[in-house]
Specification:
Elements (H helix, E strand, L loop, with lengths): L1 H8 L4 H17 L3 H9 L8 E3 L2 E3 L3 E3 L10 H6 L4 E7 L12 E4 L4 E4 L8 H13 L9 E6 L10 H12 L5 E5 L14 H14 L9 E5 L5 H14 L3 E4 L19 E4 L3 H14 L6 E4 L5 H10 L3 E4 L1 H6 L2 H12 L1
Parallel strand pairs: 3-4, 3-13, 4-7, 7-8, 8-9, 9-10, 10-12, 12-13
Antiparallel strand pairs: 1-2, 5-6, 6-11
Helix pairs in contact: 5-6, 6-7, 7-8, 8-9, 9-10, 10-12
Length: 345
């Protein structure tokens, strides 16, 4: 089905297509029997796929990466396609429109995307309300779907005040997400990646850990890192995770590299995702896993376009994986293919 739709969808602006697809996916799931058809076609339930990671039980290890559902609008629909967990965001304290359009570009010859969205989202209050409503009216059969909250700072907030933005998002989303992701690795907010340096990063993570207790409940906090870090910087990440005692790492975000690209939009600024990232993201996972002696969980993301790509990341040391660009290029059938492959190896 998707193989027939994809050539048509790829004729139009990728951001407009994204909203067209998600809007109609919501409509389809509201039709009588629509959600059941979606589950029957794409979802796969098997107890052997269940996995406990950082204290949470995942119904399967395949998640939707942050950036696709920035405002928590299609969690139920993504669960019906077979995702075991959905990460919303990146969410900022205040609403912001993001960068000027066009800001997303396909590179079909490279099976890649370049985006410079710029944390466009409706703000943490809107997202928190939507997540609360989803939890209150969670569809039958989705009780086990895990929700992650990816948090960042507003563009207008100077780096020296960044910790306050992360605190606001953390406090507001605490009751409605199952885990948090601190995003300091997007290349599309000016100066944001400077927060990956050890001192500011330690301040943000330690501050959040100090607040990470509400009625005796704490939530796993993960750090999302860039694929462009050097080995020395990755060594620092291992030390930071150990010292702050956060739950784990997401490896990796998009890259600023343009090596080997052939698509006509290769010179566009922004973060590159998709197939060109497959090898590097797996290398980062393997390095962190080996350097830390497997001391903390890693969620692998970047260039997963096949079941074999996912297995490579799991074998490299990832506990879970996430999809975004591969999901766009390969369609929802990719989720089931990965889960079947996991059961067969």
């Amino acid at each position: 089905m998707y193989s027939l739709l994809k050539p048509l969808l790829f004729q139009f602006d990728p951001e407009k297509v994204h909203y067209f697809v998600t809007r109609n996916l919501r409509r389809f799931n509201k039709f009588p029997g629509g959600a059941a058809v979606s589950r029957a076609t794409w979802d796969m339930k098997d107890q052997r796929l269940e996995k406990e990671v950082f204290g949470l039980k995942f119904i399967n290890p395949i998640g939707l990466a942050a950036g696709f559902d920035k405002n928590g609008e299609v969690i139920a629909e993504m669960a019906n396609l077979g995702f075991g967990f959905v990460e919303v965001g990146t969410v900022t304290p205040l609403p912001q429109p993001g960068n000027p359009k066009p800001r997303m570009f396909r590179l079909p010859p490279d099976e890649a995307l370049i985006n410079r969205m710029g944390f466009n989202n409706l703000g943490v209050d809107v997202v928190a309300a939507r997540l609360a409503a989803y939890r209150k009216n969670r569809p039958k059969g989705q009780e086990g779907v895990i929700i992650g909250g990816n948090i960042g700072k507003n563009k207008v907030t100077p780096n020296e005040d960044a910790v306050s933005d992360y605190i606001k998002c953390f406090d507001r989303l605490f009751d409605v997400v199952d885990y948090f992701v601190v995003n300091v690795s997007s290349p599309n907010t000016p100066g944001l990646r400077a927060l990956q340096e050890k001192e500011p990063l330690m301040q943000i993570l330690n501050t959040l850990q100090q607040r990470n207790n509400k009625g005796g409940v704490s939530k796993p906090i993960l750090l999302k890192i860039a694929p462009d870090l050097t080995d020395e910087q990755l060594d620092d990440i291992v030390e930071i995770v150990t010292e702050t005692r956060i739950a784990g790492v997401i490896a990796t975000n998009t890259t600023i590299s343009r090596e080997g690209l052939t698509g006509k939009h290769k010179a566009e600024t922004g973060g590159l995702s998709g197939k060109p990232l497959t090898k590097r993201s797996t290398e980062v996972i393997a390095y962190l896993h080996k350097k830390s002696n497997g001391a903390f969980p890693i969620i692998g993301v970047g260039g997963i376009h096949s079941a074999d790509d996912a297995i490579e990341k799991l074998n490299a040391g990832a506990s879970l994986v996430q999809l975004y660009t591969g999901f766009i290029y390969e369609g929802p059938g990719l989720i089931k293919r990965i889960n079947k492959k996991i059961l067969s190896v």
